[in-house]
Amino acid sequence: MAHDHKHHHHHHPNIDDTSIWKLWISIFLNLAITLAEFVGGILSNSLALLSDAVHNLNDTLSLIISLVARKISRKGVNEDKTFGYKRAEIIGAFINLITLVIVALFLIKEGVERFFDPQPIDGFTMFWVAIVGLFGNFITAALLFKESKENLNMRSAYIHILSDGLSSVGVIIGGWLIYKYEWFIVDTILTIGIGAYILYHSYHMLRETIDILMQAKPTGLDLTELQTAMQTIDGVCGVHHIHVWQLDETQAMLECHVVIKEEDLRRMEEVKSRLKKILHDDFNIYHSTLEFEFEPCGAAHHELEHHHH
Q1: Which of 179, 213, 247 is the last residue of a domain?
Q2: I want to staple 255 with a disulfide (CB 3.0 to 4.6 A). Which of 80, 162, 222, 289 is the partner?
Q3: How far apart are CA 105 and CA 108, in angstroms?
Q4: How many domains are there within the chain?
Q5: 240 and 196 in one domain?
Q6: What is the pLDDT of residues 43-91, one digit of tens each?
Q7: Cα within 13 Å of Cα(178), Cβ side
Q8: The model's pTM
Q9: How far apart are CA 38 and CA 190, in angstroms?
Q10: 150: closest CA among 227, 66, 254, 75?
Q11: Do the Cβ atoms of 143 and 158 come closer than 8 Å?
Q12: Distance between the two ends of the chain, CA-based, in angstroms?
């Protein structure tokens, strides 16, 4: 039966069913930790624990978004969404990162206010709750390790969880210092540190997601190089109006105009397939739409020059 089920999904080579139940377990684990740290943070009056809880809640949200987006992106192509639902995960990651930034800024503000008005904190509670948090993060990270290799959204969830583990370690040490020496300032330092760390990560991942949403050209792709490569093909006089964009983080698309001589009309299909091969093999472009134009080659070159100036 299991074999049969696998076979049923074989047109989605990159989506593994185990990742779905792993996501569910991670979501419940993370919710539990978040709750524990939230209650612990209020009881012990520790902002660092609260910021760790928020960090965790955000992991939970990002996992839920990953899960929903996975389900949606499975839907495949339909009449409205002619590209299928690949972008769902990217939009999910985008919303998640925005919320994260807002929350991080709020915590930093609170931390700074406490810096000028230190408050007593129960280090003992802080210490043990953070240990529970670390343990939960550790299990979740181990669960998601494999999936994080192959997908931007799962990677964002995985990085959140790892960084959460790191911040839990900080809070554990902080709790111990507060319990032992009553250094309440440690709590503020940790809060600002965790906040800054969240901002730093979010910034980089936001840029990546925004680039894809804005249909920017794939990073590392040189358009001039691409144009030159296309023009080296026998029979191609010129290539212009090149658009390259990304559907999601794995698939790039291209559309452009190709100028060929009128006498090469018969060879059009051959030229087209050679162009598509170069695009696929050398530039990882999976889908290309080429529009052919015919004119005497000299004129085409002249027009291209004109177009550039």
Answers
A1: 213
A2: 289
A3: 5
A4: 2
A5: no
A6: 999 989 988 888 888 778 877 877 887 777 777 667 776 566 667 778 8
A7: 30
A8: 0.67
A9: 16
A10: 66
A11: no
A12: 64
Tens digits of residue pLDDT in 94-127: 888 888 888 889 889 989 999 898 889 999 999 9
Strand partners, 238: 259
Q: For residues 85 and 165, is the Cβ–Cβ distance under 8 A?
A: no
Task: Fill in the amino acid letter for 149.
Answer: K
Using CA atoms, how far apart are residues 290 and 257, in angstroms rounded to an integer? 6
- Token pair 């949606």 is found at 72
Q: What is the CATH number of the domain that holds 89?
A: 1.20.1510.10
Tell me how far apart the alpha carbons of residues 221 and 246 are, in angstroms, rounded to a whole number.
Answer: 11
Final residue belonging to a domain, choices 213, 232, 255:
213
